[in-house]
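Q: Hi! First time doing this. I have a protein sequence and I read that you can turn it into a structure. Is that right? Here it is:
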Amino acid sequence: MPSARRRPPIVALLLCALAVLAARPDGQGDGAGSGAGVSARVVRLYQEAAVASRQYEAGRREAGAQWGEARRAERLLVRERRQVAVLHADLGRIARAQYRTGGGLPLTAQILLADGLDELMRGQHVFSQTDLAVSNALGRSRRAEARLAADEAKAETARQAARMRTTRLAGLKKDIARKLEAAREELQRRADASAAAGTCGGAVRRHQPRTHVGRAWVAPVETYTLSAGFGSGGARWAHRHTGQDFAVPIGTPVRAVGAGRVVKVSCGGPFGMEVVIRHSGGTCTQYAHLAAVAVDEGDQVTTGRWIGQSGTTGNSTGPHLHFEVRRTQEAGSAVDPVPWLARHGVKVRPDRP
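A: Yes, that's right. Below is the predicted 3D structure, encoded as structure tokens:
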């Protein structure tokens, strides 16, 4: 079994990277005291959490490989224990044979008891062969027991290494998740205050990721679970639900489903913080209950451009993105977003991790 020390130091590098991420101060380089700083920090922590998750999974796979080696070593140990048991049985058989054939008699006694030279020589030959067999059997037994002890030590080392790596990666991932949760709560508190005051405080500009979507249309969020659908009834709405809800955590980047111009940025009312984009042909899309906005009215946006972060402002019972497709800019002209997106090549599923 190859030693764990000889494996490529993948997990060691991942642990170092995670340690750097987890050790960074929450407000480093993003103006932690401002709303923009909180928004940027949430985005950064989301990115770090994604990195942490990938590295944790890589570490789990590495640990799984170590456990696999440990299990193979255990199977080898079982075979070696059987071999040692066979050798011990051979030693017992040889010893009993020596006793029965007189192989243990002193040479003087053999000379006195022998009927002649030929018998004495034959006895000596048998004794030498038996003694050699005993020596070989003892040697094989000692070597097998040494291999057994070495393989047991290797198996235990592999198990301990797997446990330590998994524990450290889980701890680092948990630390980033804790920081992310605190930043999300702070972001939502600031968003609630802005929505109550009816002012957004300006767009939170940030570096856009280099994403080449290669498509004219995309879903408004990358990962989601579909919740309330178009036309749903309930006490939360005066009439029927006018959009499709995407359940996502607070602070999730929200993107423009297609290219267009921002025609509305609002921070009060039942939709809380919202952005409306007009696309080619006059169709508009709305993104509501946000915790932060990243665009201003009049901005031109491309497909996939971050326009804000999800939240739970306005008439909302929990974190989600309310997404509408409208024939005009104004409310009351909404159509079902799911088939509309499907006609534009975007298929949304009930649960998309």
